[in-house]
Amino acid sequence: LISGSGPQNRDEELLGHKPFLVLSDFLTKNGIAVLRYDDRGIAMSKGDFKTATSADFATDVESAIAYLKTRKEINKKKIGLIGHSEGGLIAPMVASKSKDVAFIVLLAGTGIQGDKLLLMQQKLIGRASGVSEEDLQKSELTNRKAFDIVNKSTNLEQLNSDLTKFIKQELKDNPNSEKPAEMSDDDFVKLQVKQIATPWMQYFIKYNPAPALEKVKCPVLAINGEKDLQVPPKENLEAIKKALTKGGNKKVTTIEFPNLNHLFQECKTGSPDEYATIEQTFSPTAMTEILKWIKQQTK
């Protein structure tokens, strides 16, 4: 199991939920062995999380596969990957290069470039939180410019100074921005730059998942919740399907589950604000479909 973005333990623990614990429990009870691991630098795993990109996390997945191949109780010809969110971007990276991956399941995986995804995500979450269309358009314009700076950047030091200059200017031009009243301009600028000028974010903004997906030859199940505001279902499932088909992969199944959010919980609006307040951790309907599909691939 490959976790979503941010530092997580082997249960993908977040906001009072343990999605990977629930999913692995369900799969093992149905005869599918599951390997979970703590992200690098988290809980019992060594390494540095802060300097790592999705490409580095892909090498962690490769070592997990190498480990599984040493286990007697594992069928080496039927090792698959399940990736959630960022994990759904990493699974195809690994599967496109490795003969050891028999199938992949993408849970709200991404099919479009990071900068485009973030713009859509910001708009959808903003709208669900009641932000006005005018303000949404303003922040989209600012974010687009910031992402352009990232896309053109070649090193972090330069990116730092370019973004600092840009955000300072934006703050001057828009004194009514969402800067907290008690925060100084300098601190606000630093905070904004720090969120974007990281190795992970720089990589994510520039990364287009399509070329890796085009090289994936194994069976793929891509699923999304209809109310996912972080990885919009229609656009991403379409892009995933298109890239796989372009590469000649005919073993592709995509499902959009009604009423589910980014964590595959039954929800009202899909807003991230709801995640912690919903009792359910992972929809049984989604888990049953995942199991059914895996059983077909491992017959």
Written description of the protein model:
It is a single chain. This protein has 299 residues and is an alpha/beta fold. It is 47% helix and 7% strand. The protein has eleven helices and four strands. The chain has helices at residues 19-29, 54-68, 87-95, 114-128, 133-152, 156-173, 185-196, 199-206, 210-214, 233-246, 284-297; strands at 80-84, 103-107, 220-225, 252-257. A four-stranded parallel β-sheet has the order 1-2-3-4, with helices on both faces. Helix 2 (54-68) packs across helix 3 (87-95) and helix 6 crosses helix 7.
In short:
The protein has 299 residues and is α/β, with parallel strands linked by helices.
Topology pattern, helix = H, strand = E: HHEHEHHHHHHEHEH
Note the gap between the termini.
20 Å
How many helical elements? Answer: 11
> In percent, how helical is the residue content?
40-55%
- Write out the strand line-up for the largest beta sheet, numbering strands in chain order: 1-2-3-4
Kindly state the mean pLDDT as a whole number? Answer: 95
Which structural class matches the secondary elements? alpha/beta
* Gyration radius from CA atoms, angstroms: 20 Å
* Strand runs, count: 4
Principal-axes shape call = globular
- Which spans have pLDDT < 50 for at least 5 consecutive residues? none
The main β sheet shows up as: 4 strands, parallel
Which assembly state applies to the chains in this document?
single chain
Percent of residues in beta strands: 5-15%
